[in-house]
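Quick one, probably user error.
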């Protein structure tokens, strides 16, 4: 029995929800006895889990689970223009039957940062940033920010009254376009293409805090930048998820 086998077993248990966030794992000695290995091998397994951001080891407190259950960072359904496909599903839970929720936790108007300029949004321009947290069984599993130029965020769909959907404050009822209609189409955004970049890197501090993960934990960072026919950025999204999640999309045609 190797440390990698122990890591795989515990990682699967975390992904399946067998080991929930905050659960105390066996001591190094007990883990070694359970798998019939040396304490050195058991300690190495915990070190790997900590490096992956899945567990946290503290002197005197033992080792606890630092990640939530697995979920798909689903990027949507993509089809050629001549196909009549249903609206994209923003995300889906890996565990069948699991209670999945999504909450907007921050809405603010800010000046575009240098990082946003790298996505094609002019630095110093006015944008609206919205942050959402997606959870399974009450445990946060995805952190997502959406950045939209203010002039686009302030649009109202035809016949829509009240605050523009993208400017709706935290706690407001979620915006719901007609069934089968993309939010971008509902808001009159001329989205023609989306570039997607997926990297594995240390998660940003705000994502670590939101996902209850140790600072510097590695994760998937999914950056989507959608552009119109003039190649101007319509919106950008950054989705962060722990490494034991999946990143999926559906392409039709």
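Nope, works fine. Designed sequence:
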């Amino acid at each position: 029995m190797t440390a990698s086998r122990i890591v795989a077993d515990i990682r699967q248990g975390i992904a399946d929800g067998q080991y929930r966030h905050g659960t105390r794992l066996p001591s190094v000695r007990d883990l070694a006895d359970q798998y019939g290995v040396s304490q050195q091998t058991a300690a190495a397994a915990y070190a790997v889990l900590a490096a992956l951001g899945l567990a946290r080891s503290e002197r005197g407190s033992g080792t606890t689970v630092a990640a939530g259950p697995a979920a798909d960072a689903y990027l949507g359904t993509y089809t050629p223009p001549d196909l009549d496909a249903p609206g994209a599903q923003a995300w889906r839970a890996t565990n069948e039957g699991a209670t999945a929720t999504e909450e907007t936790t921050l809405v603010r108007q800010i000046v575009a940062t240098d990082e946003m300029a790298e996505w094609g949004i002019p630095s110093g321009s006015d944008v609206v940033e919205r942050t959402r947290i997606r959870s399974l069984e009450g445990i946060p599993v995805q952190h997502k920010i959406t950045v939209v130029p203010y002039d686009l965020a302030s649009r109202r769909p035809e016949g829509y009254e009240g605050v523009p959907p993208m400017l709706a404050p935290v706690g407001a009822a979620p915006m719901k376009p007609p069934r089968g209609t993309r939010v971008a189409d509902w808001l009159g955004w001329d989205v023609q293409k989306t570039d997607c970049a997926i990297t594995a890197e240390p998660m940003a501090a705000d994502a670590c805090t939101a996902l209850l993960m140790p600072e510097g934990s590695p994760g998937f960072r999914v950056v989507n930048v959608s552009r119109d026919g003039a190649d101007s950025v319509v919106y950008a999204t950054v989705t962060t998820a722990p490494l034991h999640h999946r990143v999926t999309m559906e392409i039709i045609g």
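The helical segments are 3-16, 28-35, 39-51, 114-118, 150-153, 183-186, 205-210.
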